[in-house]
Design a protein that fits this description.
By secondary structure, this protein is α+β, with helices and mostly antiparallel strands. It is built from 1 helix and 5 strands. A 3-stranded antiparallel sheet has the order 1-2-3, with no helix packed on it. A two-stranded antiparallel ribbon has the order 4-5.
């Protein structure tokens, strides 16, 4: 399978060959729907990220992967809770 173009289970087109705009509300930055702009590890979402696509201004690098701000905030809160319970 190539990653230039594919269709997600929800019907959205994705891949680095698919032109799009940032999924952050109100942002019109031009991106593609490749993994470089993906929140989380998997298209369509996973335990870390929402699976949407964001520009460099709205996607943050970190552990465990790149995340949008809401997903990063959730990950930090869950990590803090886990550390407090330990």
């Amino acid at each position: 399978m190539g990653y230039a173009y594919y269709v997600l289970p929800d019907g959205r087109e994705a891949g680095y060959g698919v032109n799009a705009t940032c999924d952050h509300e109100g942002c019109s930055a031009e991106i593609d729907r490749g993994i470089a702009y993906l929140c989380g590890r998997n298209p369509g979402g996973d335990e870390f990220g929402c699976g949407d696509y964001f520009c460099d201004e709205h996607l943050f690098m970190g552990e465990p992967c790149q995340l949008c701000e809401p997903c990063l905030d959730r990950w930090i809160a869950e990590s803090k809770e886990a550390a407090d319970e330990a």
